[in-house]
Amino acid sequence: MPGQKEKKKREKNIFWQLFITFAKVGVMTFGGGYAMIPILEREVVDNRHWATGEELMDYYAVGQCTPGVIAVNTATFIGYKQAGNWGGITATAGVIFPSLVIILIIASALTAFADNPYVKNAFAGIRVCVCVLVFNAVIRLWKNAVQDRIQLAMFLAVFLLSVFLDLSPVLFVLCSAALGILVRQWKERPAK
């Protein structure tokens, strides 16, 4: 049965691809979930075609609303889409593996070097770099998310409310989702 062997080989291959792809994303991501958007977009959307840019943004939105780290949630969604439960587990393991190894190495050495001026200056430089990476991610999200005046108004409203009010981001996401549904229904209502 050559067909069965080939199918099992392809199934094993997808798990390996998921693990390696998300490990690559995990090892190259500094600064959290938003900083990984450009890398994730290149690997998942452009190179592997596992999701569209719009789907990736949807995964980010849902990942923001659910408990856990955005990077892990997004990897889980994409892995699940590609290979079911085991695909989600494999992609999640891939994205957290590099961080786990790096954190263990840093934690074992950091206490000895935490007061070193070179280490302090290095972390100051890394913080600046992370700000730029997050800003770049915001620009990429902006291009896909804000496409008309209504979405621009929603963006400005959420931005201003989040700056001046101390509310949960989940509340902003849920209200934006409800408003998005209402706006879509209003736009698609039959003309009388």
Work out the oligomeric state of the chains in this entry: single chain
Class from helix and strand fractions = mainly alpha
What is the average of the pLDDT values? 84
**DSSP strand content:** under 5%
Main pleated-sheet profile: none
Task: Enumerate how many helices there are, as a single number.
Answer: 7
State the separation between the terminal residues, measured CA to CA.
62 Å
How many DSSP E strands?
Answer: 0
Stretches with pLDDT under 50, minimum 5 residues = none
Please trace the helix and strand order, writing H or E for each element.
HHHHHHH
Radius of gyration: 20 Å
Per-chain topology:
Blueprint: H1 2-28, H2 37-47, H3 53-65, H4 70-113, H5 117-145, H6 149-164, H7 169-187
Helix pairs in contact: 1-2, 1-4, 3-4, 6-7
Short description:
This protein is mainly alpha-helical and 192 residues long. The protein is 83% helix and 0% strand.
Walk me through what this model shows.
By secondary structure, this protein is mostly helical. The protein has helices spanning 2-28, 37-47, 53-65, 70-113, 117-145, 149-164, 169-187. Helix 1 crosses helix 4 and helix 3 (53-65) crosses helix 4.
